Amino acid sequence: MIKEQYPKVYLYRRIVQAKIFIDTNYADKIDIDNISDEAYFSKFHFIRLFKTIYGKTPHQYLKAIRIEKAQQILKTDNSVTEACFSVGFESLSSFSALFKRITGESPSNYSKRHQETKKKMDKKPLAFVPSCYAYQHGWIENSNFEEVSE
Amino acid sequence: MTVTNIHVINQDSAYDFYVNKLGFKLVDDIEMGPETRWLTVSPPEQPDLQLVLFPVTVSKMFPKEIAENLIELIKKGIFGCGVLTCRDIFATYEELKAKGVAFIKAPTKEFYGTEALFKDDSGNYFSLQPLNNFDDENSI
Lengths: 150, 140
Prior knowledge:
The complex is a heterodimer of chains A (150) and B (140).
Chain A: H1 9-25, H2 32-38, H3 43-54, H4 58-74, H5 80-86, H6 92-103, H7 107-123, H8 131-137
Helix pairs in contact in A: 4-5
Chain B: E1 3-8, H1 11-21, E2 25-33, E3 36-42, E4 50-55, H2 64-75, E5 80-86, H3 89-98, E6 102-110, E7 113-119, E8 125-130
């Protein structure tokens, strides 16, 4: 049995639960005040502890998670509008501006780039697999890997 | 290095572990035939490093006896796959535990720093250490 001996375990568990709550409910309207109350912290104390552990305030973290989830949605041929509202944004322009600030490209560009890659992948999947792996798996018979017989 | 292997026993279960529990990002998941996929993930914040979740199945690479032996060794926890570093080891430990990751060792102060050990779904083990192992600046 593992003995829990590290200090402040009770503090960590409460902050981690808040983070998991954000991870699970990112698409809903999340009130940071509510989260800090449920974790039995003052809002200031909660934000400070959260930022110390995760390097971001809860609000910054929530925005980052939403953009990350939007990226996953955009990879699956959904529209920018669908991605925006699915992850909890209420304004397409705010979403697009934040997406570009965080990722460096617009959501429509991101989506287009990934759809093009997906088409290439569907057409020629082996182009995305290093030849040595493909050969080891038996996905190709490549004479370059055969031993030269004397 | 850009691509390296982790030998796994079941790719579906490995996907769930690495993506849903550890929070690794899915890079490629390409069907290459019946019951075989090119499945790669990357650690968060390291998008240039791909880990191939390489299934140990009877194939050109693994004849039957070798596959069976390798699976047994993996299940016994013989293979350590490396060190994962994190910002705060205690927070990461609590989160991974809450998500069902099996820890062999809780965060423990050793002579070389603080370390925890956990296993993946196949049996491979990893060391978990804080980024600045002798510095408590990221701890509360």
